[in-house]
Amino acid sequence: QVQLVESGGGLVQPGGSLRLSCASSESIFGFYDMGWYRQAPGKERELVATIPRTGSRIYADSVKGRFTASSDYASNSVYLQMNDLKPEDTAVYYCQGRKSIVYWGQGTQVTVSS
After folding, report:
1. Between the CA of residue 10 and those of 58, 82, 85, what are the distances in Å?
2. What angle do CA 103, 107, 110 make, to 5 degrees?
3. Which residue, among 2, 20, 18, 30, has the nearest Cα to 79 in the 3D structure?
4. Which end of the chain has the lower number of beta carbons within 10 A, N or C?
5. Bridge partners, residue 102, by sequence
6. Beta bridge partners of 41
7. Cα 26 to Cα 39, 87, 107, distances in angstroms
8. C-alpha separations of 1 from 22, 24, 25, 73 in Å
9. Which of 11, 27, 10 is nearest to 78 (CA)?
């Protein structure tokens, strides 16, 4: 059973930065793609960024230019660098890995508030 474990969330002021990490219990090379999603209170879960095994990364319009997704095969991890954070970025952020089935992490809370 694949396990994905997120870390790096927390409370940050508007304009600040956070870096989320997602560690996989198996090689991330085995996934078709990995991604970051988020879910704000009362809203549906939405895609933030996709990291395909090949091809370009895809970002939600709301985070383009501010967030950067990356991967590190050596550490079997993916990352989400979040800059210029806004209150509307407040949500639980989830890591997803897709093989024949989809795996989810437990989520990490990001709160942007002054």
Report:
1. 24, 12, 12
2. 145
3. 20
4. N
5. 98
6. none
7. 25, 34, 18
8. 16, 11, 9, 19
9. 27
Token digits of residue 110: 């990001």
User: Can you read off the two tokens belonging to residue 82?
Assistant: 């979040």
Q: Are strands 4-7 and 108-112 parallel, antiparallel or unpaired?
A: unpaired
For residue 109, give both structure tokens: 């809370």
Supply 62's token pair.
Answer: 């709301």
Residue-wise pLDDT tens digits, 59-92: 999 999 999 999 999 999 999 999 999 999 999 9
> Residue 60's closest CA among 32, 89, 84?
89
- Residues paired with 49 in a beta bridge: 36, 59
* Token pair in block for residue 37: 């999603």
